[in-house]
Fold this protein.
Amino acid sequence: MIKRIGNTPIEEKHRASCHCGAVVLELALPDGVVDPRRCDCSLCRRRGAIVASVPLAGIRILRGEAVLRCYRFNTHTAQHYFCSVCGIYTHHQRRSNPAEYGYNLACLEGVNPFELGEVPLRDGVNHPADRSGSHLPL
Ligand SMILES: [Zn+2]
């Protein structure tokens, strides 16, 4: 359970924002930052974000719903949201667990993700949803 990153305590209701500030989210993080990961899927390898988890009810959009855009690819299950003004990825509804959002750890206010230390890697090339049935290329 990660309750502090660098000098920034993780609040039970912690705000997150995109770069330009058009999008502001409130994240419910009663257990702090949960399960931070990097991922090597075709999307994450390009965007490079560290992603942590919240249940769907754990994100409230305080501002900027109208400027959020959604990107889908491959099976079109996951919904990747980003600010259409500054382009920063904020959060996504997961394909591996649609009851969860992943969110961009670097969007948490006051948090410098480089102070997190070593971050585990998720195997996004061999996606859990592809392991049974036919293998889909990314
Ligand atoms: Zn923005």
Q: What stands out?
A: The longest strand covers residues 13-17. The radius of gyration is 15 Å. The CA atoms of residues 5 and 116 lie 6 Å apart. DSSP finds one helix and twelve strands in the chain.
